Amino acid sequence: MKLFSAIFASLSLMLAGIAHAAPPPNIVMIISDDQLWSDYGFMGHKVVQTPNLDRLAGESRLFTRGYVTSSLCCPSLASMVTGKYPHMHLVTSNDPAIPAGMTNRQFQTSPLFQQQREIMSNHLKAAGTLPAMLKEKGYLSLQTGKWWQNHWSSGGFTSGMTEGGRHGDKGLDIGRKTMQPIYDFIADARKQQKPFLVWYAPMMPHDPHTPPQRLLDKYKDKTPSLPVAKYWAMVEWFDETCGELIKHIDDAGLKENTIFVYLSDNGWITNPAKGGYAEKSKQSQYDGGLRTPLMVRWPGHVKPERRSELAQSIDFAPTLLKAAGVTVPADLPGIDLLDDAALAKRDVIFGECFTHNSKDLNKPAASLRWRWMIEGNMKLIVPDKANQPDDVVELYDLSVDPTEEKNLAAANSGRVKSMSEKLNAWWKP
Question: Which residue from 67, 107, 74 is spatially nearest to 92, judged by alpha carbons?
């Protein structure tokens, strides 16, 4: 009888523990679109105001030396959702190659274009995605904003806005026109008592730079360049939408059990004379296109602090999966950003940039432009001779040359050699 009572008591304690166990955390991914790493108040910009993201940064584990894998929207987003480098998930470019005799417009409205985009979407599915893996844990997930891989379901989301347009179609209304689809989704997830993932990737501050007049008026006298003023106003408009989303979560009583992560898909420097992007930013091999702050907010679990370690967009997948209690696939190359031991061991990160239009949808090396790596403060850039025949190897000390003006490669052949060996060990086309 005593044995039975002891067993019963133990089972009761176990069941009580299960009943009171914290539910899996909700997850909100905020992804800026075309924003320079320094264009935030919390990163030291003297003019642009981002009060909501400043507040989020102050409540987060903030990595000021964060990087995406590639400086182009589509492959960069694909790396975020899979946790893999472009040469691993095979989505290296924004678009398939334009056939001879066709204009870009003709190609993008042709059946061939859709067929080839389906190949890209299938690569993403085969790579495995964060929403699909979280679904096995009972998560509901919502895609909004930028999405290149046809229908939202190709990313493993349980719902979404994009129905198959080139880079977002109806999804691009989020932020610029409405936030309601996110609020409705959260309400439904709560009704079902399900944990949720929100992918908030508005086309902001991405061009067209069409900010509210009140924000343009605020910035137009702070710079002689109207294109720059429009971009700065877009940054603040984007910040306002982030504030609305954060407030909605916090006011609903979900703050303590919701993880917010933040980053930009790639950098942007406005051409002050013509608008559009300047050199050494989007699509380039430089930090102006690759660097972004990364942050993780999870009250009660993550201590707010600024961190100087190297961090990368591929780290969000293992970080979030582990937090959700999902086994992290062995083939994910990133690390858990909440694991101090893993951060201490990391001394190098890698990345790659490809042609805007793929030269071969199944062979990443065919479209390669540059591979790059950062070791400590030293950054090595190695061009692909097939696609960048006139480029030279570049080496920069980012601690004293953050805009990468002085190439040190010729004077540091030994360092170039040792870093190149590591780059080749990572991926040699």
Answer: 74
